Amino acid sequence: MKYLLIPTDFSANSWNALEYAVRFFKNESCTFYILHVGDLNESAVIGNSFALPREKTSPSINEKLNTVFESIKKGPVNKDHHFIALQEYGNFIDIMRKTVKDKHIDLIVMGTKGASGLKASVVGSNTGDVITKVLCNVLVIPENAPSIIPNKISFPTDYNLFYTHSILEGLNEILHISKADLHVLNVAQEEREPTAAQKRNKTYLQDYLSETFPESHSFHNISHRHIRTGILHFAAENKIDMLAMVAKNLNFLQQLLFDTTIEKVSFHTQIPLWVLHE
């Protein structure tokens, strides 16, 4: 049984994330926790009073959650999929961390908008914080991403990190479920000889993939002045359906995801991103 956490602000983006997750894991036994996090001022708790709250959830939020579950019922029925609604109030990241721990979450699935829509989307504006501050694998579904099982997945890497068991296990799971081809991509900003550590890490990854997915992986090296642009050009030219990256490699990840002036997600692509944590 897999346990997935899908935060919702009842937007089209959060629904797209749920829809994508249901389709991706259509052949897996899963429990989907659909979580809405509201501001404290929306709850019935007033200040620091010890008085018992009259009611924890507001009718409007209950109605919205009911609408989500009615929409789920209208979709294809999968006896191995179970859906549970959760509602909490307070700091979004703190609640995400607590839920991941309490519910033994394997994967967080989040919808997000492009940079122009960040302020309008609670989920979108929190995606960057979830990726960097919550120790759980995250699948980011951009606005308007097609809900398809990926055929080609790219794994951008600079080979500076050692690929731990958890990282390789995460890649293994993605490839096992999707049956996709993996394109390992190194984007170099300048011509330089790889370090001894980079060579060792690359060889280790090659050996692992040759043993586990001998017919469905390839390695690519390209040069580009901007790493982010190089990755997206490669994705477009090779019809990549998903990107997989390691969260620990923050410098590399930020070049793809973050505008350094506002430190918010600026994901101008329709390609889902799977972020792997150790």
Automatic annotation (TrEMBL):
InterPro entries found in the cross-reference section: Universal_stress_UspA, UspA
Signal sequence extent: none
Family: Belongs to the universal stress protein A family.
Protein name: Nucleotide-binding universal stress protein, UspA family
Residues in UspA domain copies: 4-142, 178-276
Superkingdom of this protein's organism: Bacteria
